[in-house]
Write a structure and sequence with these properties.
The structure is a homodimer.
Chain A (H helix, E strand, L loop, with lengths): L10 H12 L3 H12 L7 H5 L4 H13 L3 E6 L2 E6 L1 H19 L12
Antiparallel strand pairs in A: 1-2
Chain A binds a DNA duplex through helix 4.
Chain lengths: 115, 115
DNA sequence: ATACTATGTCGTATATTTGCGTCATACTTC
DNA sequence: GAAGTATGACGCAAATATACGACATAGTAT
């Protein structure tokens, strides 16, 4: 991903791609849904709910944390993870803008040859 | 990605992850934006507009086509790619549902210990 | 202090992605 | 038909991602 050419894209495009990548694995989607459904911050229970080893889940958590999509607070022996709802809302807007832009009109101009 | 365990997730989660993965590279985001801005279907011009080789762009196009996000129609010597706006709208809804679900309420219950 | 528990980090094997050169295909034009 | 052009398919090297066991760390509890 971090090939040289990657730098030649818009910061906006890279940002969207970065977040999309974070959601590009079912486990991470599941983690976010889990954190949303349980209204309370859970910790290693997440691993128990997923069909993956604790280690692997921890890695996925770190990835989400690296993008600040989730936050972890140490509470004694356990760590409480919460969604960063503010960021998520912002990301949602970014995605919406992208999709709206892409679906604004049917792409092909009325008289275009193809399609 | 196609590890054994991957099957253990919801079809919904896998679907979202699949699409997210398609958007997980700036080149593919750029391609979609390009197709949206040029109101007419373009073909190999896409490669010319991107800082990547024709071959690489072709691969990204195939990836988007595999998910049916874009469609290509052969028009003589060239191929016209168009956005599948209908699918994109549907995907937009899926993402929106996911984000709304995730940001519906602040995750932590009022009296929870952490956060 | 000692034993126990919850997490993160590291190392590593395997799988997948990415980028691109080269070749094959197919249509156009002369 | 021969030459030229636009694309996709194939193959390969380098980069990443994925999964997980083993170890390190840090707080709890007795």
């Amino acid at each position: 991903m971090t090939y040289a050419k990657t730098t030649a894209f818009t910061e906006e495009q890279q940002q969207l791609a970065r977040v999309a990548k974070a959601l590009a694995h079912p486990a991470r989607v599941a983690i976010i849904q889990l954190l949303a459904s349980k209204r309370t911050c859970i910790s290693g229970d997440i691993a128990a709910e997923l069909p993956l080893s604790r280690t692997t889940v921890s890695q996925h958590l770190q990835e989400l944390k690296a993008l600040d999509l989730i936050r972890g607070e140490i509470d004694g022996l356990t760590v409480c993870y919460c969604l960063n709802t503010e960021l998520l809302r912002h990301v949602h807007q970014q995605f919406t803008a992208f999709f709206v832009e892409s679906t604004a009109a049917d792409t092909c101009a009325p008289g275009s040859a193809c399609c």
